[in-house]
Amino acid sequence: MSYPFQIKTKEAYEKAYQQSVSDPEGFWADVAEQFTWKQKWDKVLNWDFKDTFIEWFRGGKLNITENCLDRHLEDRGDTPAIIWEPNDPESRHRILTYKELHFKVMQFAHVLRNNGVKKGDRVCIYLGMVPELAIATLACARIGAIHSVIFGGFSAQSIADRLQDAHAAFIITADGAYRGNKDIPLKSTIDDALTTCPFVRKVIVLTRTHTPVSMIKGRDVWWEDEIKNVETMGNPYFEAEVMDAEDPLFILYTSGSTGKPKGVVHSCGGYMVYTTYSFVNVFQYTPGDVYFCTADIGWITGHSYIVYGPLAAGATTLIFEGIPTYPDAGRFWDIVDKHRVNILYTAPTAIRSLMSFGTDLIKQYKLDSLKVLGSVGEPINEEAWHWFDENIGKGKCPIVDTWWQTETGGIMISNLAGVTPSKPSYATLPLPGIQPVLVDENGNDAQPVTNDKGETIVSGNLCIRFPWPGILRTTYGDHERFKQAYFSTYENKYFTGDGSFRDTDGNYRITGRVDDVLNVSGHRIGTAEVENAINMHSGVIESAVVGYPHPIKGQGIYAFVVTENSHVHELNKDDILQTVSRLIGAIAKPDKIQLVSGLPKTRSGKIMRRILRKIAEGETGNIGDTSTLLDPAVVEDIIKNKL
Ligand code: 6R9
């Protein structure tokens, strides 16, 4: 497979970028021509950020699985599509060629149909990192059902919220999942979620851990039994459903600044074009390369850069079931050597955590197959960047620092490996088709200033002023929220929620969220969500949650909690943690809980988070203007008892 749209030189990047701005429709039409369409589009782009509609390739008809699977059969049917590395290094790994993956996806599409799934139905997928997770997602896409993958670490309550929001009547799960030395009881969590979701009609359960599970007659069926039924049917061919380019492909929930996660909706056509284009260009994928992205398919990085982008490009994508520190902190390097990985895409939090184990372990591995390294999820600090470069890349692998979001579908700002220069801690330049702008509070273009190092920079809130094919199309079931969240802050611009600098060469350095969203180990967590969960705990009156710098997680969660004085049972912090775990999941557990007598508030009753943030960051000598505080004694008290 060749990629006519692959950019191979700095000059070609500049040319592509220019063209993508002067003639976006012509530019993206040329890229889209490289895919299999059942019917060509009538119009490349219709959009209005004010009225908030965006359509790419209107009238085009396709099925993304034909692009990820069928079209590779002739030339690369026997090439590995998926290499699966199990949690336990002593267990056998699995390889699925494009032919085998195609076959399994069609088989499972039959299973879905046999169980009543139809085009447009929402199907929730709650699985560990097994090949069946990719198979299930692709089978949904094959039949035209909208998948909603939920990360295996989310609680029953979080699952129930998502099932209700999407009104998903079908679930695909497993008895359990292996992660390091833990067995995660997936089915039993689903059972808990389903007590409040009577509309769920079918639960398909894969066998993985042999954990005992309860199976409800008529509702719950085993994956393996269903496959046997399909085998007796004879011809496994499953005709791919004809989808409009703008039909939804999936929903993926993500935290925003309000309490309720948003169901980000991506389309079939634009998403396919954008993930493939960005995959091939950012990582400079060459056919035959083994590509390993360490994210979980439960997050957007896994959707776009484990499943759809790589498979549409005919790549070999490695799926790893376990965690970086099991059985020891050399696991990633072991996988790299074992499968001769060429491209490794991971997260700063993983790098920082592995740094803390020192470099002795790394010396046992060759790591000589590596050509390109990548980072995603949060700003990468210079120390981690250099450590990664020296110890893993051995100074010879370009590092791509890829900035993007669940909402953007694919990588937006990044260097292209070995093609455009990297700059430690900078995501660098926008991809062709991406038009970033930095704006001030009023939405005007931010003006250059001189920073304390004497450099001229522009600093502001990061917006994008023109659509790209991978942009989200709506938030599920609530288009008004989509409008509010992304297009109301600044007129005619998509607002990312991130702050950024830009140097005189046009390189962007993302500084982090400017809204009430935290980035904990690369996971987006809304402070309001955590507060809602804490406030559910008996004896809690109110709470405020802020982030603080954490050496490994990037940001840690600091919770200030006001409790009832008269509460008989003394409030135990571990109990509060338990409540957060139950309601959201372990990833949202605060790192610090400080019980306080009151929160700093303005006269109008608004919590002054700015002050709490300063306290959590340890900058108690510099908490800023407190003149609007209702009761300054509250702040003194909090500072005195700070953790
Ligand atoms: C892909 C993904 C999005 C938020 C985003 C930003 C942060 C992601 C980054 C980065 C600096 C990078 N972020 N990549 N910040 N440099 N290379 O992570 O999606 O989970 O939706 O998070 O993550 O703050 O707004 P998502």
From TrEMBL:
Q: Which organism is it from?
A: Taibaiella lutea
BP GO annotations: acetyl-CoA biosynthetic process from acetate
Q: Which family does it belong to?
A: Belongs to the ATP-dependent AMP-binding enzyme family.
Domain Acetyl-coenzyme A synthetase N-terminal, first and last residues per copy: 13-68
State the protein's name: Acetate--CoA ligase
Q: Is Nucleotide-binding one of the keywords?
A: yes
**In what residue span(s) does the AMP-binding enzyme C-terminal domain sit?**
529-606
Q: Which UniProt keywords apply?
A: Acetylation, ATP-binding, Ligase, Nucleotide-binding
The reply on keyword Zinc is: no
Alphabetical list of Gene3D superfamilies matching this protein? 3.30.300.30, N-terminal domain of ligase-like
**PANTHER family per UniProt:** ACETYL-COENZYME A SYNTHETASE, ACETYL-COENZYME A SYNTHETASE 1
The protein's matches in CDD domains, at most eight in alphabetical order, are given as: ACS
EC no. given is 6.2.1.1
AMP-dependent synthetase/ligase domain spans which residues? 70-461
- GO MF annotation list: acetate-CoA ligase activity; AMP binding; ATP binding
Pfam families named among the record's database cross-references:
ACAS_N, AMP-binding, AMP-binding_C
| NCBIfam families linked | Ac_CoA_lig_AcsA, PRK00174.1
